C-alpha cells in the first residue's frame, strides 16, 4: 500500500512550487550574470569571431545552466517535501 504524497496537499504543493520558482529566479539571475561575463571575456580577448558565435555561446550556456537548475530544483523539491518517501518499492521485500 502506498502512502499519499505530501505534494497531494494543495498547501504543501504551493509552498514547494513557490520555493522551486524562487530557485529558478535566482538561477536565472546567476545565468544572466555568467553569460554576460563570458560574452564580455570573449569580446575583450580580441579574437575575431562572428556574431553567430556569440549568439550560439550565449544560448548554449544559458540553456545548459537553466536546465541544470530546473532538474536540481526538482530533485530538491522531491526530497525536501517527502515525496520520495511516499513511493512504494514493489521489489523492496525481495532479496
What does this entry look like structurally?
The protein is mainly α. The chain has a domain at 30-80. The protein is 69% helix and 0% strand. It has helices spanning 10-44, 51-81. The model has no long low-confidence stretch (mean pLDDT 86). The chain crosses the membrane at residues 26-45, 51-76. Keywords: Membrane, Transmembrane, Transmembrane helix.
List SSEs in N-to-C order: HH
| Strand fraction | under 5%
Q: What percentage of residues falls in helices of 4 or more residues?
A: 55-70%
Mean pLDDT: 86
Low-confidence stretches: none
- Rounded to an integer in angstroms, the radius of gyration calculated over CA atoms is 20 Å
Structural class: mainly alpha
Task: Please outline what is shown here.
This protein has 95 residues and is an all-alpha fold. The chain is 69% helix and 0% strand. The chain has helices at 10-44, 51-81.
Amino acid at each position: 500500500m502506498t502512502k499519499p504524497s505530501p505534494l497531494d496537499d494543495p498547501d504543501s504543493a504551493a509552498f514547494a512550487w513557490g520555493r522551486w520558482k524562487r530557485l529558478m529566479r535566482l538561477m536565472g539571475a546567476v545565468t544572466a550574470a555568467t553569460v554576460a561575463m563570458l560574452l564580455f571575456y570573449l569580446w575583450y580577448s580580441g579574437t575575431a569571431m562572428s556574431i553567430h558565435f556569440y549568439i550560439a555561446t550565449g544560448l548554449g550556456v544559458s540553456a545548459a545552466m537553466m536546465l541544470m537548475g530546473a532538474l536540481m530544483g526538482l530533485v530538491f523539491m522531491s526530497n525536501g517535501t517527502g515525496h520520495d518517501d511516499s513511493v512504494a518499492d514493489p521489489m523492496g521485500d525481495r532479496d
